Amino acid sequence: MKTLRKTISVSLVKHRKAIVYALHFEFDRDLKKLCINSGAIWSNSKAIWYYPKDKMSLDKLVSIYKNKSILDLKNISKEEFLKSNITPLKDKLDSIQREHLNNFYIYLKGKRFSESTLKTYCNLVAEYIIYKPKEADVDIRSIEQHTENVIVAKNKSISTHRQFISSMKHYLSFINSEVTIDFNSLAPKRDKILPNVLSHEEIIELIRVTKNMKHRLSIALIYSSGLRIGELINLKLCDLDLQRKMLKVHKGKGRKDRYVPIANVMLPLLQNYLTTYRPKSYLIEGLTKGESYSPVSIRNFLARSCKLASITKRVTPHTLRHSYATHLLENGTDIRYIQELLGHSRPETTMIYTHVQSQDLKNITNPLDLIVKQLEQRKKIN
């Protein structure tokens, strides 16, 4: 039998909204036949044979063409491969691994972690289990290799990196490992990034251009009461105290309850909204009565409103909360009260706004202005 030794260049490309393995080679009848028999699809638009990545592993691809061609994989870097990995994590786990992760979930739930933390920790540990070679021990080096080959390769955030180290601390305890993690030595330091802040004029314009009443109320409430997006969508009608002009936030971050004020100018909008929409349970409900609104929907309409308001800064729902805290500080509100209003456990968290406020910074004379002023004075004297 004739041995095919033609070179096939393999790359990862996006085709029809999916990531595919694209095969590039000079025409050859035998290779074409092999493509057809192995389930490859021909694309007229790209003039390539390809395999959908979610239906073909790289190992399987190599085995199909082994001894029949020379596969050139230099276009598939490890980083590219990881970035294009769109298969859900749960689909990569076998039945034993799924049961193991389910028991880990129950273990974490017993520690009373929030649903968000449970999901994050389980996903990070699942990813570790998937990428770790089966014969490798669960030890410090395997954790370091995972951060090197997956966390960093996928360009995940510093926050995710730190969460992975935290999740592994709990995982090692769950499997009764004798390995202990020194968090400070393995986890990178937090980024000291100052939050974006909108000006007073930008806040007003943002609310003004938002015509939908539910959307306008959502934006105005997040800003005027300093709410997190999760706190907004979990607000129920019973949490409204219009007499006292207060909102009760149930189990905010850290499972803390707190009261936050309702701005006077919000009251007519609230009354109009309640009369028009007649929500059943949650204050801001989705399309189905009695069900909470989607965080994704809030982010989407906020982005649209920012575009209409010609705001070019990167704005998220949390930007409105940052703006609320910064404006309070600029108006002279004591930092301790701001800490209480935001529901921060530590004063250090609130202190970031002392670096963002602009009132005192505006009063500093810029050295360039000073030089120009001195030159102008000299000209007058001369």
In summary, what is this structure?
This protein is α+β, with helices and mostly antiparallel strands. It contains 19 helices and 8 strands.
Account of the protein in words:
The chain is α+β, with helices and mostly antiparallel strands. It is 50% helix and 10% strand. The protein contains 19 helices and 8 strands. The strands form 2 sheets. The chain has a 5-stranded mixed sheet with strand order 3-4-2-1-5, covered by helices on one side. A 3-stranded antiparallel sheet has the order 6-7-8. Strand 1 (6-15) and strand 2 form a beta hairpin. Helix 5 runs antiparallel to helix 6 (115-131), helix 10 (200-209) runs antiparallel to helix 11 and helix 11 crosses helix 15 (317-330). The relative contact order is 0.06. The model has no long low-confidence stretch (mean pLDDT 84).
